[in-house]
Amino acid sequence: MAKKARIIVVGCSMFGCAIAQALSTAGHDVIAVDMQDDALERLGSDFDGETITGDGKSALVLEECDIRRASHLVAATGDDATNLLIAELASEIFGVPHVLPLVDDNAFVDILYDMGIEPICPHRVCEEEFFRLTGLTRKEADL
Questions:
Q1: Which of 3, 15, 43, 76 has the fewest CB atoms within 10 Å, i.e. the most exposed one?
Q2: Between 3.80.10.10, 3.40.50.720, 3.30.160.250, 2.60.120.200, what CATH number should domain 6-142 receive?
Q3: 131-136: which pairs have CB atoms within 8 A and are 24 or more residues apart?
Q4: What is residue 140's predicted lDDT score, i.e. its pLDDT?
Q5: Could you tell me the pTM of the whole model?
Q6: Which pLDDT score, from 0 to 100, does residue 15 have?
Q7: Rg for the chain (alpha carbons), in Å?
Q8: Would you state the pLDDT for residue 142?
């Protein structure tokens, strides 16, 4: 089966591992990057991608991942500022078409939107899902 997309996942947080595994299982070409070997080991023996131990905010590490060929980059470290920096490097310096940083801080979410980058914000995703599941509506000012 041909690989569908070349995706770099920086940070093997719970989310990072889950998304790297799911993408690999779906047949995509996945490279997982983390500074800790034990974090990469959480991917498990059935992970069919590459792993690189290194600092994902380093341009040299990203180049080792052949970032210029990446179609997507997911920045999923445990630190919003790090994810913002990685997203900016991937988007602005390396021209990765689809950059998805994981962020919790609303100020970072707004900065990323202003840069044209779509962040993954867990509390916003959960909030939207809550309203979808309950059928409740928000007051007009929140829309």
A1: 3
A2: 3.40.50.720
A3: none
A4: 55
A5: 0.88
A6: 94
A7: 16
A8: 52
Rounded to whole angstroms, the Cα distance separating 141 from 125 reads: 18
Q: Domains of the chain: which residue ranges?
A: 6-142
142 to 13, 107, 127, 139: CA distances (angstroms):
31, 17, 12, 6
Alpha carbons 110 and 35: distance in angstroms, whole number = 28
For residue 33, which of 71, 59, 5 has the smallest C-alpha distance?
59
Structure-token pair, residue 69? 């060929």
Nearest to 16 by CA among 35, 111, 5, 2: 35
Q: Cα separation of 26 and 35, whole Å?
A: 25
3-state secondary structure of 39: helix
Residue 51 and residue 123: Cα distance in Å, rounded?
29
- Chunked into runs of 10 residues, the chain (143 residues) has average pLDDT values of 80 95 95 96 94 96 96 96 95 96 89 88 89 86 49
Longest dimension (CA), the chain: 49
Amino acid at 16: G
Run of H or E residues at 25: helix 14-25
Nearest to 15 by CA among 73, 106, 76, 57: 76
